[in-house]
Amino acid sequence: MELDPIVHEYVLRCGPERAFAAYTGDIAAWWHPSYTMNAETLTEVRMEPRVGGRVFESHRGGEEYDWGRVTVWEPGRRLTHTSTLAQPSGHPSEITVEFGPHDGGCRMRFEHGGWNADNAAERSKFTEWPAILDRFAALADGAPAS
């Protein structure tokens, strides 16, 4: 049983390289703390820039929570990572973000897929992607994330 992926697309004023860098390297600036284990103690959200790198959050006191592992790292073009955020770690979904040139800026396509019989019940938790991705788009295009 496979469910359709959750898909969101954005047209950005910045180029693909800047958008990729903002998505991956500035994730702590655009990811809203309320979408973590504890917004009060959050110190960092980070993506290690390589295949096999971790996507994770860190908290005061040294706690870390893994969100997934990078499986595709193509700067300025494409990123894929597993996702266990708000899901059982043994049955991850998959997030792919693609960046391509578009009218002097870029088009970003976000796809949260990999839904199957083992994780399909978790899919309904992910209705807030537009709020999260709007913060990314604002940051990538030079506006502060609110």
What do these coordinates show?
With about 150 residues, this protein is of the alpha+beta class. It has one domain (about 5-140): 2-Layer Sandwich (Alpha-D-Glucose-1,6-Bisphosphate, Chain A, domain 4). About 20% of the residues lie in helices and about 40% in strands. The chain has helices at about 15-25, 25-30, 130-140; strands at about 5-10, 40-45, 55-60, 65-75, 80-85, 95-100, 105-115. It is globular and about 40 Å long. The protein starts with 5 loop residues before the first strand and ends in a 6-residue tail after the last helix. The mean pLDDT is about 95. It holds the Pfam family AHSA1. Belongs to the AHA1 family.
